Amino acid sequence: MNAIPRLPAMPPAADTTIPAYTASGNERFLFEKAWEKRLPLLLKGPTGSGKTRFVAHMAAKLGLPLFTVACHDDLSAADLTGRHLLKGGETVWVDGPLTRAVREGGLCYLDEIVEARKDVAVVLHPLTDDRRILPLERTGELLAAPPSFMIAVSYNPAYQNLLKNLKPSTRQRFVSISFDFLPREREIAVVSQESGLDEGAVAPLVDLARRLRTLKGQDIEEGVSTRLVVYAASLIAAGLPRAEAVTAAIIEPLTDEPEVRAGLAEVARAVLG
C-alpha cells in the first residue's frame, strides 16, 4: 500500500509579521485565555494608549483574520452584517465585516464602540453570550460562530457622556482590560524603536508628553498620545528641527485655540529648554 504523501511543513512566520507591541501587564495572557474560552473582550483607555495596536498584535499572534471597524455616528447594524447591492443588473447579498468574521472564524474589532448607533450593540448581543450566533434576517440565515471567532470592542472612557455610553447590559457581556500610557522608561524605548531616534533624544519628548497629560481636562480635552510622540520623534529623525517637530506633531493636534496653543508652547519650551 502506497504511503500518502505529506506536504512539506510551512516555515514558521517571521516575527516581522506580528505588529510590535510592548505589554504593560498581563494583557496578552488575558486576551489569549479569553479567546480560548470564547469570551468577548472590551478594551478601554485613552486615545493612543495602544488598544488598536494590541488587537492587531494578538490577531497576528493567534493567526486570526482581523476585521477592524472604525465606529462613527452613522454606523448601523446593516453596515456590520451586510446588505443587498446591485451588481451587474442583479441584486446580490454582500457580507459586512462582522458576518465575514463569523464565517471565517476571525476577530472582529469595533474601535470606539460608543460612537456607533444603538442598533449595533443589539446585533452583537447574540454573539456575546453562550449562543454565539448571528441572525441575518435579510437572508434568513442563522450563522453559528466557530470556536476561533472572537469579538473585541474598545472605547475611551473620557469621551463618555449621557448621550454616548455603554449600557450596563452591554458592558457586562465583556471581559474588560484597562489601558493607560506606559511608564516613562518603557515609553521612551517604544518611541525610540518606532521612530529610529535614539533614546537620549526621545526622553525629553516623552517628558513633555507626560507633563502635558497633566493638563487633560483643563486646557486640553485629551492627553498627548504615544502615537503623537512617535510622530514628533520621526520628524526629528528625518531632520526637522525639534521645535518645529513638536509644534507640528504634538501642540497643533491638541487644540485649535490660539491662546491654548501659546500656553502649550510655553510648557514645551520650559520642558525641552
TrEMBL record:
Where is the CbbQ/NirQ/NorQ C-terminal domain positioned along the sequence? 187-271
The ATPase dynein-related AAA domain extends over: 40-174
Q: Domain of life of the organism in this record? A: Bacteria
Q: ATP-binding as a keyword?
A: yes
Q: Which InterPro entries match?
A: ATPase_dyneun-rel_AAA (IPR011704), CbbQ/NirQ/NorQ/GpvN (IPR050764), CbbQ_C (IPR013615), P-loop_NTPase (IPR027417)
Keyword Nucleotide-binding on this protein?
yes
Record key words, sorted: ATP-binding, Nucleotide-binding
What Gene Ontology molecular-function terms does this entry list?
ATP binding; ATP hydrolysis activity
The family assignment reads: Belongs to the CbbQ/NirQ/NorQ/GpvN family.
What is the name attached to this protein's record? AAA family ATPase
Name the species this protein comes from: Bosea thiooxidans
